[in-house]
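Think of the structure tokens as a kind of shorthand, similar to the way a musician reads notation: each symbol stands for something richer, in this case the local conformation of the backbone. In the example below we present two proteins back to back. Begin with the first one, reading the sequence and then the tokens, and try to describe in your own words what changes along the chain.
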Amino acid sequence: MADKQISLPAKLINGGIAGLIGVTCVFP
């Protein structure tokens, strides 16, 4: 599976998106 290959970038992207959503939810 190529899941492990996209693990690093996916984690960064997911973290960024999650962070943006979290900040937006806390400070709309």
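Once you have a description of the first chain, move to the second and do the same.
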Amino acid sequence: MAVVEVKVPDIGDFKDVEVIEVLVKAGDQIAVDQSLVTVESDKASMEIPSSAAGVVKALRVKLGDKVSEGSVLLELDAAGAADALPAAEAPSAPVVPAAAEPAQPEASPPVALPPAAVGVGFASEPRQHTPPTAALPVHEPAATTALLPHASPSVRKLARELGVPLAEVKGSGSKGRITAEDVQAFVKAVMSGQTVTQAAVVAGVGAGKGAASLGGLTLLPWPKVDFAKFGPVSSQPLSRIKKLSGPNLARNWAMIPHVTQFDEADITELEDFRKSSNERMAKQGVKLTMLAFVMKACVTVLKQMPAFNSSLDESGENLILKDYIHLGFAADTPQGLVVPVLKDVDKKGLAQIAKEMGELAATAREGKLKPSDMQGATFTISSLGGVGGTAFTPIINAPEVAILGLSKSQIKPVWDGAAFQPRLMLPLSLSYDHRVIDGAMAARFTTVLGELLADLRRVLI
């Protein structure tokens, strides 16, 4: 393979700028436009991208060196001649070695925390709100001014992804610069309870009881508004169920990085079979609902993809895989939604699932569920099909890692290769914990589930 010298491109009026971060090392496979180093002048800092793809053969710069347009950054074993332009038209500018200072180790590229560690006791999504003194902009410019915390663009990006207020991070780098390791250490300190953010202190004072128990979440106090000055108002207490579930929902939504996968399942034949079966099952006092079939299908998918039937341990570093399948399902009651749990669903047939689910739902409506009736779920299904809607984002019921939402089925035209056919389509909304499950896994889950529901023979096996 051809050896290519990757040089500093045209960076405007900047000259003899200092290398403050080296983002790659010898042996790394890099792509075109991947950031190689971070440089800083007295005005701004910026990342220098690669003009070629390949494997780093040798670095030609180190921390503290001064570079200008045309300075050689590294030698690259290029993936192909077309992948890179050696930029020969620019004369090579010399690299000015760093002044004699205590040797500093070469900076390693910013490495995100393991997925299991992100968000446990600390905000991992930028949906949180921080007070003005520690606010992070949603979008950072490529160059950052010295008035902001001393950190490179890549470190700022990492901080945004982890919800870290850079103003509260103490930098260990040259001249107090904040490194990726500093950001990661700050997150670990908050997660372990060794420190809290300033915003969490404010939230703990003004947001009411329990506000500081969210592991350092940077939340503003709840707004105090006199609504009566805008018009007539009345006050109504929340139901006991909503009072109990509210804090859990707030915790789960804030501390679990939710992503929702949307899909549809063709249940045309399954619905016909369900209706005809109910005519026979009525004599036994059993009503087969679509939810019972979905539960049966979910058992098959959960066995194929056990990560969906798991939980993170308290440290957030280990996955607990469960050899049992207990399915929670949302039941609507006059007091609000509750989630009874149907145990050992993998060991039961359709009729038994439907019968026990009906009994639990009736007990829930009567307000007579025992605590044990709502414990132990490994996966939850929330069905709004009887009410309406096309899709929604169900909130994960911690410590579970996923929840399936069902909306109202509709007749839709579906192309069969020759013509459009009317098919009954069931909307699926799968919310999952992104620390445990990635997008590809979620897409496979809904795809396999849809295939099972489309072929009722596979559901019944």
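Compare your description with these statements about the second chain. The chain has a mean pLDDT of 80.
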